[in-house]
């Protein structure tokens, strides 16, 4: 029961715009959603893309979450729907544009612990660490920190919804911080 209350408290903080709360939800539930999708898709790239889209959609629609259900169950339901949509799109083999609903701000621009760790590294070492990440994470780090693009500009550059960019950047920063700390 204490864990459920902790999750509800974290969700309330996220709803009020707390970046650390979003990060905490991502950390707590990433592996569960990713593992679920990896079993369904049997493809690491698809599983990762679907997981990013799941958190993007969940964070955008967090205000609709009904706390009578487990948060992980809600995430898995979103994840299943995204996967089904992906299969439909592939079967039709027609490119369908992303839904351009108004985007809520998911993460603020205040530096996180990962941001501070990243900036403490000297450039040569940092570049070596970045090269250890998957290419799409390298790209989003490069666009944000080296080209200093805004979330909106990165979304346009990558032709992805802004919430996907925010979640992908959050995940990239977490992975990069792990690489820098040597825990990976």
From TrEMBL:
Question: Which UniProt key words apply to this protein?
Answer: Sigma factor, Transcription, Transcription regulation
GO biological process, alphabetically ordered: DNA-templated transcription initiation
Pfam families linked: Sigma70_r2, Sigma70_r4_2
Could you tell me which Gene3D superfamilies the record lists for this protein?
1.10.1740.10, Winged helix-like DNA-binding domain superfamily/Winged helix DNA-binding domain (1.10.10.10)
Q: PANTHER family, per this entry?
A: RNA POLYMERASE ECF-TYPE SIGMA FACTO, RNA POLYMERASE SIGMA FACTOR SIGV
Report a single Gene Ontology molecular function.
Answer: DNA binding
Q: Is Nucleotide-binding tagged as a keyword?
A: no
* Protein name (record): Sigma-70 family RNA polymerase sigma factor
Q: Which InterPro entries match?
A: RNA_pol_sigma-70-like, RNA_pol_sigma-70_dom, RNA_pol_sigma70_r2, RNA_pol_sigma70_r4_t2, RNA_pol_sigma_r2, RNA_pol_sigma_r3/r4-like, WH-like_DNA-bd_sf
Q: Which SUPFAM superfamilies match?
A: Sigma2 domain of RNA polymerase sigma factors, Sigma3 and sigma4 domains of RNA polymerase sigma factors
Domain RNA polymerase sigma factor 70 region 4 type, by residue range, is: 130-176
Q: Does the keyword Transcription apply?
A: yes
User: Which positions fall inside the RNA polymerase sigma-70 region domain?
Assistant: 32-92
**Similarity comment:** Belongs to the sigma-70 factor family. ECF subfamily.
């Amino acid at each position: 029961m204490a864990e459920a209350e902790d999750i509800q408290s974290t969700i309330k903080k996220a709803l009020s715009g707390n970046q650390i709360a979003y990060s905490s939800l991502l950390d707590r539930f990433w592996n569960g959603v990713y593992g679920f999708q990896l079993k369904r898709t049997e493809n690491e790239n698809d599983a990762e893309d679907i997981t990013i889209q799941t958190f993007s959609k969940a964070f955008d629609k967090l205000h609709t979450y009904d706390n009578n259900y487990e948060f992980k169950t809600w995430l898995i339901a979103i994840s299943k729907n995204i996967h089904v949509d992906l299969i439909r799109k592939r079967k039709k083999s027609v490119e369908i544009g992303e839904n351009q609903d108004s985007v809520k701000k998911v993460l603020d621009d205040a530096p996180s612990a990962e941001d501070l760790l990243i900036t403490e590294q000297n450039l040569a070492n940092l570049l070596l660490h970045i090269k250890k990440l998957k290419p799409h994470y390298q790209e989003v780090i490069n666009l944000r920190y080296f080209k200093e693009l805004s979330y909106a500009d990165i979304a346009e550059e990558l032709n992805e919804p802004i919430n996907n960019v925010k979640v992908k950047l959050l995940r990239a920063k977490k992975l990069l911080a792990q690489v820098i700390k040597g825990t990976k």
